[in-house]
């Protein structure tokens, strides 16, 4: 007898919950008899997991015992559960399913991972909608032919050969028949409502019947014998398609045009917005075009074949050199360009560009200015399929990870060479842990210790760089002649930019046959450094990035921007760009008209480097130009209560500090600015619907964005700020962070939200923190981050709230105990406590009733058999009718009271609900009195 199962069933008898999880209870060949009393059950799990349709995730049993084991006959006890709609029996060693014949209301059935080979009895389940039978010995699926309500069926890892029984099941939307023996698909053409179809690892040659599945969104045909893929041409709703491990030799161009998701060769079976073609006998040209350019590269190549155009490899790339100012970037570029060296080389204040041929490959070197104010603009030009050189010279303020994070986020696995320059001068190179950096950033090619001045170790670096460039696959991508004609025309344009309309006119003028691919051409030209193209701000295609960077640097540093603390109107921009802007290094002049002003601002806005003033029209706010410090005193804000509450300190803690993140946060929070108090590194904001205030600022030393909040709506304002800061922090995909809250500011003691969430998911409500020497109340701290309802939704992704599905339909059975609990909207941990008190309340009446019954029986027996006292005394008592009637009266009254008490507590729903509400109110008073949130806030 499983104690776990008995306890769970007894709890269900009390709660009347319509969901019961008996998975992993160690049941072996039987079900407890008392289960038949739970006639209200709609959902029963006997396996180790079940699939939740609401979240589209597998939910594992929360029980920790041994897996259950049944032959099948023992499950006939389930027949008494007339309302059962959901049954999961996966991994239970079942071989006989005769018990299913009387479960006609089932809508969900999971019998996967069992020993079933005869599934005839499933044909009785006329209401079944979801059927899971994977990993069994099934070969015949004829029993499915009459199950007209089926929406989803999973029959993977069986021995199915024929699909004719599916032809009339027109309601099917999801079918998984992977890992079977299917060769003929004829009957599947009738399933017009299919959205998901997995036929991976079968024996399929011909996919013609699939042509009629116009609603299909996810299709997996990997590991078959498919040669022709023409039937998928009109399946324009496809979001994911897997053709890996087939015999496909060619790809028709019309299919690539119609299926507008990315095409990849990598061995990735995640089936997420891509067409997978791994392990097919495709030509090398097709493989290279996909590997390097994805769908657009493939389309480019196929068009060149269609129009009989000659193709050539790209053979051009961009090398970006970055690092702090005066690290030796320009000196290194000169050594790479022509071998020259100039002692005392002036710092680069924008971008220097030089080009040189390395064999057949043209390399465009870009040397970026290293001054701190200019780092924010690097994101404009960092691209994929680019080579990066990070130059360091051992200064303490150097942070290699700062640059590597940006390269990793924007360059996406582009190769990186790290150069330690000036090794002939005293430095602190030994302080940098190269092995740790290499382990974290796998795209690093190597570390080089050299001197541009003496050429020490320089040749080895140049040799390795040249070899890496020569071996890069993306440089071998074939492009037809029209692309190279366009590239040459653009390179001969003398202006700093051309408008998008000019670009289109240029393409039209050349009468290119592949004009529809002009967007792909722009992206490629951007990657190799011919132009700078920004799809979301397409006004201009920048031919000279120096024109762009000089203009924005000039805007940042101009006295007007400084004196007006970053608040500019149109007339200010006119004054700033009234005269030509001269690059102080090379003395070049650059001009900017009114249209250019708008373009520069829109580009900065796109990268969150400025924003429009939400309060004042036609005014732009540029955080780089803001005042150096706040108006408000930090100490006053921290120590002065608001609405009787001191502030709570939250923070975003980053692995790598990227300064532009706080600029983005400030720009995004400007609509909430309080008393226009914002500065270069932070902002004071006010909640829109209350007097709650927050002090938000960056702390580079601790790699945090601190968020001090005080007032009436602390948690509500945190939720708003959390959304904004998370969004701005996610601009760089590798910008990892955690959200924390301080529990003792003076002692710098803080704890992360994820740590608390994990603890609660694992069933820990309180724990002792040995480092802090404090008891941590997990629930109270979690409430600092999210509202009860949001917290419940977050937790349900990991730990399903089983009672949430109880109330989808109300069959008027009366207000049951668990329904009442749900109406009160209590959290799970509160429900447990409430249920404990409520159960004791009911058990008291039962115990009193039993004691009363026993006592009454003893009195009657004593009366009849003259026990306990002497016979003489019994004779006197029996002679007195008054004594007899009085005893009967007292006994009747007492037992009536006890009986009524028992009835009220077990059978009167109104009394039960009243008691639950009373307990809940008492719990709320207790929680309010001891709330951590009230203590802090």
From TrEMBL:
Gene3D superfamilies: 1.10.10.2200, 3.30.310.200, P-loop containing nucleotide triphosphate hydrolases (3.40.50.300), Ribonuclease Inhibitor (3.80.10.10), Winged helix-like DNA-binding domain superfamily/Winged helix DNA-binding domain (1.10.10.10). GO terms for molecular function: ATP binding; GTP binding; protein serine/threonine kinase activity. InterPro entries: COR-A (IPR032171), COR-B (IPR057263), Leu-rich_rpt (IPR001611), Leu-rich_rpt_4 (IPR025875), Leu-rich_rpt_typical-subtyp (IPR003591), LRR_dom_sf (IPR032675), P-loop_NTPase (IPR027417), ROC (IPR020859). Residues 781-808 form a coiled coil. Residues 310-472 form the Roc domain. PROSITE patterns: LRR (PS51450), ROC (PS51424). It catalyses: L-threonyl-[protein] + ATP = O-phospho-L-threonyl-[protein] + ADP + H(+); L-seryl-[protein] + ATP = O-phospho-L-seryl-[protein] + ADP + H(+). It is an enzyme of class 2 (transferase). It holds the Pfam family COR-B. Its EC number is 2.7.11.1. This is non-specific serine/threonine protein kinase.
